[in-house]
Amino acid sequence: MPDPTCRPPLTVREERLLDALRRHLADHGDMPTAAQLAAAVGSRSEDRVRESLGALVLKGYIRRDDTRAGGIEIVQVAS
Predict the structure, then answer these.
(1) By CB atoms within 10 Å of each CB, which of 14, 42, 54, 64 scores lowest?
(2) pLDDT for 49-73, tens place per residue?
(3) Which residues pair with residue 63 across a beta bridge?
């Protein structure tokens, strides 16, 4: 697993997606679906959203648990 204290920078698309994840979690208490994320970032492609989620996992910004619905966890960096 990548070291959360020295993660690669995000692309603009990845930053928007991570922000949408945080907002949805704060507003609704759960993680959004791919369709909700696509709508939140103005994308017509759920596949593109899934690709970006994969990039966020590889860069260490989120963790995914594909065995459960909404299985996304935002990785916090210790201060």
Answers:
(1) 42
(2) 999 999 999 999 999 888 887 789 9
(3) 73
